Amino acid sequence: MKQPATFWGGLGALALLALGGTASAQGIATPPTGGNGFKVGNGRLHPYFDLETRLDSGVGYFSPTSNSEPNSDPVSANLASDVALRFRPGFRLEIPSSTLAFNLGANLDYVLYTGLVTKNSSAASRMEGAADLNARFNPDAPLTLEVSNQFARSDRTRTAAVGVGVLSLFNEARAKAPWRPGGGALELTPSVAYAVEFFQPLSSVSPVGCTESVCDPAAVERFDYGNLRVGAEGRWRFLPKTAVVLDTHLDVRSYFNDSTPGASLLRVIGGVAGLVSPKVAVTAKAGWGQNFGSTGGGTFLGQLEGTYLYSPTLSFKAGYLRTLEPVAAYGFFTDNRGYGEVRALFGGKLTVSGGLAVDFLRFDGGRNDTVVGVNIGPEYQFYPWLTGAAGYMLGRRSSSVDGGGLNYSRHEGYARLSVTY
User: Fold this and answer.
1) 15-31, pLDDT tens digit by residue?
2) Distance (Å, rounded) from C-alpha 121 to C-alpha 399?
3) Do 390 and 363 form a contact (C-beta atoms < 8 A)?
4) Does residue 389 lie in a domain region?
5) What is the CA radius of gyration of the chain?
6) Residues of the chain above pLDDT 70, percent
7) Domain coverage including residue 192
8) How many domains, in total, are found in the chain?
9) Chain segment 53-109, per-residue pLDDT in tens
10) Nearest one of 211, 104, 113, 93 to 155, comparing CA atoms
11) Residue 312 CB burial class (10 angstroms; 0-12, 13-18, ≥19)
12) Domain membership flag for residue 5
């Protein structure tokens, strides 16, 4: 039998769902502040190591026969819980320069399931990892070239339609050229990016009640895709801290092994962003998204976000976002998202943050999902080289499509120690 799945229901597909247990942005988090690092040219190399323990109610789907339930259906199972240990060595290389500023971060992340709660869950143990590269040529010049790449191997995918545990291999290469003519009040940034994502089934066991193809672990490889994005962003600062913004992006999505209709999504959105007072920042945008693929379809886009800086150590953020994204199996989906965040710093060492996000997803063809994400927890810097963190994350999803793979709650409690030099 194949390995049991580590389930996340495909919610990592949404770049929009960055709060709480709803999604995990693939990439390299900045290691804890502190330490001198090793000198590399004009820059520094900072190695770090994270040790984390996590109680997770959504480890994966296990064959009931492996859990001493011989009378159960052997081809379907409920979501299981377990305790995991994560060992994450990594580094961050930062080289500042007026000709070539260079940043590189990478880590390996070994996930070890202990089997303390669910028998035989250790079969789901695996190696994950991530790497981010960013190079800026002539960063202080009016015309700059930025080249970057993001790589991630994780069970948190970017495909919102997938409702079964999968291992995702994602890579995106990007290039953009910010141009600031004159005094810099006007900035124009053309960009291009190409992303691929490949999926691997982690289990032959299906969630109880799932009959749709998006719940079938054996079929997940058919959602492998390539995505070309070209765009341009414009910003005109008509006041010192307020600007008119206009963003245009075209996504051309194709699938390597599937008959899902390809999508060609053009999004144009513009508005204003900046400070309305020394403590209040507002972003207000409106626009339109249109699918020029074979299925057609378009919708209104918008964003309204406000940030309140109560004090230098306490801030609040809340907003609403409506966007259009390509997706496997359905072509595209619309996301209406409300979100909020609070962050506080106490004594210069203790940071407490909390976030809430609610997403209403409507897939082309009629499927509707509701996703709730919560993330709350403290982080404390014991020494410049040692940081501790703990927290709780909730990811809850309900769908108009029946089945455990698309209707679930995932609770995660964790504690982490980070050492950096």
Assistant:
1) 333 333 333 334 565 55
2) 27
3) no
4) no
5) 22
6) 86
7) 38-277+286-299+408-420
8) 1
9) 999 988 877 765 544 343 344 456 777 889 999 999 999 999 999 999 999 999 999
10) 113
11) exposed
12) no
